[in-house]
Amino acid sequence: MHNGETETTVLLAHPAVLRNLIEQYETLRILQAENGDEEVRRRLDDIVYTLCVSTGTSDVDAALIAARHRLPGARPEDDSLRTAVESAAGTTGADELHGPSPV
To answer: Where is this region: Disordered (predicted)?
Structure first.
C-alpha cells in the first residue's frame, strides 16, 4: 500500500451457503404468505439480513441477484429484468436461439 491507502478485504460466502440462504428465503416467503406468523417473519428478517451481509448489498432484491450470480452455472449478466419480460411475453431465452415454438 502506498500513500496511506488502506486495503479492503471482502469476504465472499461459499456458493453452497448462498444456495441454502436462497432456499430458506423462498420457503419462508411462502410460509409468510400463507399464515403471516410472527416467528416466520423474524426468521425471514434474519435470512434477509444474512443474505445482504453475505453479498455486500443493502436490500433483499440486490442480495438475491448477487447470490444467484455466485451459484454454479449462473449467467454473468443480470437477467432479472429479461426473465420478467420473457415471463410476461410467454417466451424464454431459448426462443432467441431457435425462434418461438410453433403453436
So the answer is: 72-103
